[in-house]
Amino acid sequence: MAEMPSSFFDEMFAGEDSARGPYANYHSWFSQEDVRALLKTSEQAEALFRRVGITFNVYGEAEADERLIPFDIVPRIISAGEWARLEQGIEQRVRALNAFLYDVYHRQEILRSGRVPVELIQNNEAFLPEMMGMNPPGGVYTHIVGIDLVRTGPDEFFVLEDNARTPSGVSYMLENRETMLKMFPELFSELNVRPVSSYPAMLRRSLAASAPENSPNRTPVIAVMTPGIHNSAYFEHAFLADGMGCELVESFDLRVEEGRLAMRTTQGYVPIDVIYRRVDDEYIDPMVFNPESMLGVPGIFDVYRAGNLTLANAPGTGIADDKALYSYMPDIVRFYTGEEPILQNVPTYRCSEPDSLSYVIEHLSELVVKEVHGSGGYGMLVGPAASKKELKDFEAKLKASPAKYIAQPTLALSTVPILTRAGLAPRHVDLRPFVLVSPGGIEVTPGGLTRVAMKKGSLVVNSSQGGGTKDTWVLGA
Amino acid sequence: MLLGKSAGGLYWMFRYLERAEHMSRMVGAAWRLSLTRSSDMSSEWKSIIASAGLTQDFEERFQTYEFETVVNYILRMRDSDASIMCCITNARNNARLVRTSLSTEVWEAVNDGYLRLKAELSRPVTLKNLQRILTEIRQSATLVRGAFFGSMLRNDIYDFARIGTFVERADNTARLLDVKYFVLLPSVSYVGSRLDNAQWEVILRSLSAYRAYGWVNEGNPTAAGIARFLILDSRLPRSLKFCYKQMLSHLSLIEEQYEAHRESHGMAARIYSDLKASDVEHIFEHGLHEFLTEFISDTAALSRQIETDYRFGL
Q1: What is the ipTM of this complex?
Q2: Does A219 touch chain B (CB under 8 A)?
């Protein structure tokens, strides 16, 4: 190990050169390898990614189109036992999220019970009054969920964030694995790594199971809807459509015909049953939501309300992954499942509450402050890493609109080594497992996307902020 | 089921690939000529620019037709829609658009070719590296074609891609001939110059037909022989007749698959049967230039009709 693990929990090393259980086989393989040769392989991985076209666009950078997310060739390994517990916790949480969404758009029992304040829902832009009383086909709100997890110790996992709108990154989970299979086939023949490659097929089955019942099509017609070729995640949209064997459509291909959403094919308009949309709520129908939207389809929401179309995820699911609501999740889980939450929340200060606000301002240099509606690591403050001036500026922002922010202690995120020129070096990671919900149940793909902060000491893993990814191995029992 | 947009994307992806390949052949042939002859090459470069339909654009930018100017213009000019780099970029953008209709092998071949050429053409093209770059362009196109033949389902996706290829190819061959038609006029005195050995050689080489011509015509280069070969010989993969035969067969396959008749099929069938009924004497009699002008405009009309019939756009 080139850099010694610090006080943080390192997932691979228990001490210098002593690997923890799940990493034992990997570590003994690694010890036989030549670092220079591995670095060379790592360069080949980059060429593979470029060739396959797994690139993303960074908002606000006109010329820097098509960048690669750095990929690290050292896998993140999770034991069968660890995974079993995570899987249970995720399943429980996602079950609660869907129950919450149904409730919030129907009788609102949870508000009546006073467990969640009414204002939090009423004044929330992510809450769509248009969804009140609406029953999504199959009763599913969040067909696809990404649960962001972090770890601080052997048994300490926390949910950092729920992604219930349009979680992205699953194409990296799949392509990272493909790349690892090409580069290190020998590892896969020795270690019992559970496969992830059936995800697109599972997604297709899961979406088809949520299709409306009155379809004129013999089998459900599914399409992935993208904002277009310039969207930062376009590769992923095309990748998933290809993996599912379904069309990739944008607004230009769609219109409403005879009460159904239809796509323009070489043989005329063909009705669609299920849209896996990667277009935000706000843009989906200019007649109902943002009238300026060029990305949506006029009238699509009426088709949806009439029960003639499945939108995955349902509009209005954003209320469930709102950062202001996050701090209520433990109660939400208890309320709908009657069980104690298996996965912990990170302690969260709601800046809208005066006591919390003054605590946050006093301890700003120790906390991570996030925008309630922000995502992708934009607009957040990492207290311990901020300069005096940044802290001061942020304090002013907090005072001006406290309700826009929540704060959390800086977690001692676990590390997993990455390969550097000098050998292995610990870097902080998080994990986003992908969850599919269908009327038949909840499935969690064994693995997920491990994001890693490539810079020494950095706690920010977002790709827009220079983070990279790793392949995530869940070991079989 | 195929989205109209995807059919259009496939069609244009393969048109652009064909165009890039064709332009690289033309440049290669002219460059070869410049090495073997001491004469002034500017008219040769001029006719390449003309056959790509870029004369006006070129002359707005440059005063004279010189090797490095022309070659860099054709290969890598960024803000020209028609440079080889732009064709490759457009082909790759269309491939991204129709990514789900392509096999991984085809997509990777297109993307890889694009990435390599982009790196290669980020520096000026010189006499020294031209040959290597032209080879690379043709190899890239060949790889895409090979991946396409080897890995794609034989369905409407395949047909639209092939139709794009042959519409573009027919257009390219006809335009090249039209720019050079004076070389092939039977009455040499009519244009006041002799049948120029190097000139017809350039035409044949531009269409990868030089050796082939030798094989099928005992190497006897006559104006009528060359015109017949390039227009009417259905064995030559770049002849007008061959292109139409292919187009028609793929349009028929689509009709069969869709069980519906479309206007474009009738148009292609008419043009093809005219070609079948033609002989080269007849074409010369009515004027080669007139024949080619009409052919180019018919082909453009057919292309528009295909776009309408199969809903490429709204």
Answers
A1: 0.85
A2: no
